[in-house]
Amino acid sequence: MVHKLVLLRHGESVWNLENRFTGWTDVGLTKKGIKENIYAAKILKDEGYSFDVAFTSVLKRGVSTLWTILEEMDLMWIPVYKTWRLNERMYGALQGLNKSETAKKLGEKQVLLWRRSYDVAPPALDKTDKRYPGNDPKYSNLDPSEIPLTESLKDTIARVLPYWDDVISPIIKDGAKVVISAHGNSLRALVKYLDNVSDEEIIKLNIPTGIPLVYELDDNLKPIKHYYLGDQEQIEKSIAVTRDEGLAERHYYIDDPEEIKKALETVQIEAAKSRKEKPRHFYIDDPEEIKKSLENNDKNKE
User: Fold this and answer.
1) I want to staple 124 with a disulfide (CB 3.0 to 4.6 A). Which of 147, 149, 192, 257 is the partner?
2) pTM for this structure?
3) Into which CATH architecture does domain 3-246 fall?
4) Would the pLDDT of 252 be above 50?
5) Which of 10, 12, 18, 36 is catalytic?
6) Burial class (CB in 10 A: 0-12, 13-18, 19+), 212
7) Please, which contacts does 202-206 make with residues 24 or more away whose CB atoms are closer than 8 Å?
């Protein structure tokens, strides 16, 4: 029997757009992210997929992505299980920092190690830091020792796999059709395990937002094959966006004029804070002109 498992990274979040390290910070989705989720649901429905049970994290970008998928597929009635074990990797003291700015200060190689390596963890949070998850009621039922202050991918795998082994895999073996709505690194953890990806090769793996990744598994849950659903050109473009997040000079692939305006204003507001002057407001209507202005702004920062 072939078991089909669908993995889905949440649609674009606000901090994805702003190119920030997010981790366990509970941010919402952008308009583009919501559209990505609706499109993912349409693809799944058009391809004849259905689900018996769903899993997600306790972070709202993962939860709301799953809600959209289930609503669009008329599957709101199926059981949904939320667990902190499917949360994004804890990025420690990097959470909230801009990836490109961090790369400029510390080097792209160091940022790439933090983002994509197997066993290198970012600097840890202090428990007195307001970003410490132990202050969040979502984690009040956890032993404080279980709440990470930082994580490498190796650490993320160590918390994801027990849930996979004890809860998800037995359900799949029983014949249930499963969808998992989670995050870039919790899904990379699963992919590394399923495909037995080496510690060296995992650094190259980038999972795009809002695109269903299908695994066909045998009765022992060993992969037969895996593939993304959707337009191949768009899939490659989305993977490139994820790959380039840690570059010192970011390449922009935003195609929604309103989102471009917001991103541009965000850059100007941050620059204005450092200059202690009021930000300018932009009323450029041509998307190409907006992109040029945004890229020129990055060049002027150098």
Assistant:
1) 149
2) 0.79
3) 3-Layer(aba) Sandwich (3.40)
4) no
5) 10
6) buried
7) 202/116, 202/117, 202/118, 202/153, 203/112, 203/116, 203/117, 203/118, 204/116, 205/116, 206/116, 206/239, 206/242, 206/243
Max CA pair span of the chain? 65
Q: Could you tell me the sign of the dihedral formed by the alpha carbons of 138, 139, 142, 147, in that order?
A: positive
The tokens for 166 are 């004890």
Extents of the domains making up the chain = 3-246, 257-301
Q: Reply yes or no on whether 226 is catalytic.
A: no
pLDDT category at 112 given cuts 50, 70, 90 is confident
Catalytic residue at 88? Answer: yes
Nearest CA-CA partner of 105 in 246, 275, 261, 287: 246
Are 51 and 75 a contacting pair, CB within 8 Å?
yes
Say which of 18, 36, 88, 151 is annotated catalytic: 88
Q: What pLDDT is recorded for position 240?
A: 83
